[in-house]
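Notes from the 1:1 (GR / supervisor)

We went over the backlog. Supervisor wanted to see one worked example end to end before approving the batch request, so GR pasted a single chain during the call. The sequence is below; no edits were made to it. Supervisor asked that the structure be written out right there so they could see what the output format looks like.
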Amino acid sequence: MLFSMGIPFIAHSSLFSFYKRFPITIVGLQVPKFLQKMDQKKPYLTVILIQSIYAGMFLLSKAAFDGGMNNFVFVFYRQAAATVFLVPLAFFFEWKTAPPLSFVTFCKIFMLSLIGITLSLDIYGVALVYTSATLAAATTNCLPVITFFLAVLLRMEVLRLKTTAGIAKILGIIICLAGALTLAFYKGPHKKLFCLHHLFEHQHSQTLRNRTSSGETWIKGCFLMVISNTCWGLWLVLQGRVLKSYPSKLLFTALQCILSTIQSFAIAIALERDPSEWRLGWNVRLLAVAYCGIAVTGVTFYLQAWVIEKKGPVFLAMSTPLNLIFTIFCSAFLLCEIISLGSLLGGLLLIGGLHSVLWGKTREQRMLDENCLPTHVDKECTELKPVTARSHH
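Structure output shown during the call:
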């Protein structure tokens, strides 16, 4: 717990931030280069932590649903747990320094919570019941493509088709779409890997396995996963704009949790009236709620806000292939999930497409950072940022 919450506090005021303000000398001594490099690597280490936490979410959520827990009730409990965890921290650390919250900003945060958290998680829960943890992790690799499209539509990203970078992005998008279609429509040979004992075996599990083996149900689950990721992608893109008007990341995250708790309760109570479905015992249900509420909603949502502010939404989305790798091995070992060839091929296509998009974005950003100096001028550079020879004389 303390380790998970360490990075957010570092993001606010840390030794690294102190060195960043005084990069040349401190008390007559030069700042070690490795500290400066560590400061630069913080976003990369943060996204690795985020994706490993998400892998745990896929596994525990699937185990809870296999145990018969209602997915709408689950979303309410995880958001309530996150609210209880985050609100005291937000008030303690940021209440005095927080900017005033206008009605317009509050409405924006309300809609962000509804689309990106409440609806996204409810749809995701239904889809996960129909599919598997591995497929859930694999389909999240569509998120960068969705995020990129939304960012282009909102003019937060630029797509230039006459450059190598632009062609790489388009090629990556096509490969990602091919991967998504492979996941939905092709299963191929199945194999159970590594499994010695199912960690969270339930009597309800076999019924769900039989249901998810249906091709129609599997396609329906894939479709719902894409819808969930579309809501999630829109949430990632729009966060950047809202954070500009309300930069208190911890309060911003806590307020989203409060609003999402209210929204998810309204949905859950409307769809599930049986009191027995709302009971939590000392089992995987309680573990999944606590983990998803504290580690996922409480920690990663805040970390994501920090990464988006530092590197942008597309950078965060490009790290999603990591959770597929973590989930494949953990689900096969802990949940005894049967891994299909279609899932592996689809996942590989998605990862390949994401690397193509990321390569194009990195190349484009590097050329912009160099300001297209005369020593680097070429046709692509001219397309990215026109510079005349006279301006350098």
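Supervisor's comment: Residues 23 and 203 are 60 Å apart (CA to CA).
Batch request approved.
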